[in-house]
Amino acid sequence: MVSQLTAINIAKMITIAIVIGLIALVGISDQRQILYACMHISYCIWWLVEQRIYPERRTFLFQEKVGPVGLISAILIIGVFYSLPAFLAFFNPNPLTIAATATAIPLFYFGSLINTSADVQKMTAKTLGSDLVSDGIWSKIRHVNYSGDLMRYLSFAVIAGSPWAYLVPLAITALYLQRIGEKEKSMNEKHSGFAAYRQHTTRLIPWIW
């Protein structure tokens, strides 16, 4: 038995290995491949390094235990399936357009910044004993960490340049919608101030939903 976090860490390392393997197998023939590799590998490395910089992550996140089936599922879904845009990017013979580059880079960096800032604020608040975090980056969107993560995965799909690449952010969106429903119910039961917080915020997309 290992924790969910350990399973995810292993999956992230497999993703890094897949992208490096694609570089070795296919090579770098266009800006598309080098940009994709830099973005996805740097994200996975940051995921692993962040747990060293902020050890609270190992305390608060994904502490449920999983057996062999859970570990294999994490590897296949997070490690392999989430790497689908990498395969599509490396085997895409078309040059990367300026429009795709100009779209993907802001999505990736702002998404990463939003996701990391939200995680750090929440971890700091929990360390100080606060349960409901409703200020700062959380003041307008109740699940802003998910918003940032989806922006990042959308950037991978944009760089891949294939409609099939959007299967990954769509799958992640479906997962997050399920989690949001569960979290909203739990937070409403646990926190007396959640109803007021919900009135002036959106769940995932600012001003929309």
Classify the fold: give the CATH topology.
Answer: Four Helix Bundle (Hemerythrin (Met), subunit A)
Biggest sheet, strands in spatial order?
A: 1-2
Could you give a short account of the major beta sheet?
2 strands, antiparallel
Number of helices: 9
> What is the averaged pLDDT score?
92
Helical residues, percent: over 70%
Q: Point out poorly predicted stretches.
A: none
Distance linking N and C termini:
38 Å
What would you call the structural class? mainly alpha
Strands, total number: 2
Describe this entry's structure for a reader.
This protein has 209 residues and is mostly helical. The protein has a single domain (2-199), classed as Four Helix Bundle (Hemerythrin (Met), subunit A) (Up-down Bundle). 70% of the residues lie in helices and 2% in strands. It has helices spanning 4-26, 31-53, 57-60, 68-80, 84-90, 98-127, 144-160, 167-190, 194-199; strands spanning 2-3, 65-66. Strands 1-2 form a two-stranded antiparallel sheet.
